[in-house]
Specification:
alpha/beta; about 35% helix; about 140 residues
Length: about 140
Amino acid sequence: MVEVSPYRARPSSSPQPTVFVVDDDAAVLGSLRFLLETDGFAVRTFRSGTALLNLGAAPGPDCYVIDYKMPDINGIDLTGRLRKSDRDAPVILITGYPDENISARAATAGIKDVVLKPLLDENLVKCIRHAIKDRPTPDLRDST
């Protein structure tokens, strides 16, 4: 019996869920790559929002983890640009600058969760797993 995945089908060469991480801090990228790969995710990192946007039509991730404060574009604006490009994977915003305004703006932008730095451990992993699990499955009947 074949088990149907709760999220979109992944190519056979990449059976684990893929997470794209965007942060301008190389140390944070390295730490998050280690954390997420240890928990079974395939990880691709980007040092800026622009680098992610320049990726083009490559296959997208199962989830994005995006820093709020970056020099080129903030995480909420980056999420908006991703949505305009038909990239509908859930987004988790990470920030070291918490305030109510960021959380409200993130919710309005459709961001799944806001996780505070430096608490990027099991809390982030749980948020990612829930976001992927709760992601709507595309109706394959509409593709005919």
